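Appendix B. One record, verbatim.
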Amino acid sequence: MDRYERILSLHRILKTSRYPVTVARLQEELECSRATVYRDLAFLRDALMAPVVGDGEAGFRYDADEGGRFELPGLWLNSDELHALLAAQQLLSRSSGGVLSNALAPLQARIDKLLDEHSAGKHWPVERVRVIPHRGRRMDEHVFRNVCSAVLQRRQLSFEYRARSTDEKTRRTVSPQRITHYRDNWYLDAWDHEREALRSFSVDRIGAARVLETAARDIDEAQLDTHLAGSYGIFSGPPKGVATIMFSARAARWVADEHWHSQQQGRHLPDGRYELKLPYSASRELLMDVLHYGADAEIVEPAALREQAKSLLQLALSNYEGRS
């Protein structure tokens, strides 16, 4: 039995026993050593604030006045779990451009308190958990909170949306389905009531967001997955084709460990190169990722996608011509 199960069993034994329980009986019931019994008793008393009284000779029990009212707290963690939670909290707050820092501040305080109880006031160097956002976009904290609230409360959301491609501003009323974190940025997957279709909205382009009293329309999970996760990246929709990309032996060491798509297929070739096949819908994001590898990547097929990449490379080259 692991420690969590032992603490629960120890609590149950002490809570239901009318008389002190000997260490020998606790060893038998908990299937552990004498030293482990004492460690668990100390943890129950000092970390979880249980009213444990007694000694090793007479046995242990809960204080008669407090034992009947005491219950284990809803959340208690060991040091390793607290360290992992602390690191996760830092990752979440810092990778969101600071937009979650204020919201997570109370959680930070509770984690610090629990760590202090485990370490007798020792300082934990939070600054050693370093998160460096990459190309994250600025968001309005009030908008982000309203978006999250609408998703979790299952209520419709009204907002102004400025499309990045056209800079056109429109008013939308949607039924939020999911909030998605993708490449250091947040997106709202929602049912657009005016267009009667699923759409993905970049949260940093949302303004004047207002949570409505109207209940959100729930879209079936299978339909969401088909529409939003069936193609390459955040530019969702039914896949329009399968791309075959060839990477040099040098780039293969990186690409072979990368996750580009849930349905990707990759294989190492005898000459060290790496072949990657994956479905895609809109080509823009796929082309950006392929061109990121420069001369180490080549789109083999389809021919139309290959020509798109070739045109982009020629346009990029033209920017460097005619200057000394």
